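Q: Could you fold this chain for me?
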Amino acid sequence: MANQEVDKGKRRFLIAATSAAGGVAAVAVAVPFVSSMMPSERAKAAGAPVDADVSKIEPGAMIIVEWRSKPVWIINRSKEMLDLLGNHNDKLSDPMLEVVSQQPDYCNNPARSLKSNLMVLVGICTHLGCSPSPKLQTGGDMGPDWPGGFFCPCHGSKFDLAGRVFKGSPAPINLVVPPHKYISETVVRIGEDGKGAA
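A: Sure. Below is the predicted structure, expressed as structure tokens.
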């Protein structure tokens, strides 16, 4: 009788010790597994917002920044460039931005921008993902009727200075305007929604 009670005590001790060891082992295995599902620091950085100083972009010029491994163009459109935006709507596939929304609601305007002179565009053609070349000036090797914009040499898609696609281009829709906001008069943050300081 006494031996059976001793055996039950040993049994309870062994069950408790085994359960505790199993719990510790399960946690030890789970921690690296759960950690592997968390985004890496590199992945976090790739999706993080990017700030760009726009104060040094001359009128008629552009800079390129990288956001989420994509080129983002920031163009300081001159008054002459802005004046040309409404002169070729009849040549565009979606001049009024009605077919497919390729911009945040706060950029759903004729200039497709928060500040009329500053255009922010993802520099990837909406046809097959090539990167169009800037052809910002009128005329030139694009012909006398060219109002300025972007030309994709891969398949010939053309976009105006608001990133709107010309009719007859292989690209079916306008270029993407990424989420962005101005955090000061001279700094635009790409990757965050909102009007911010204007």
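A (continued): Helices lie at 2-37, 41-47, 79-84.
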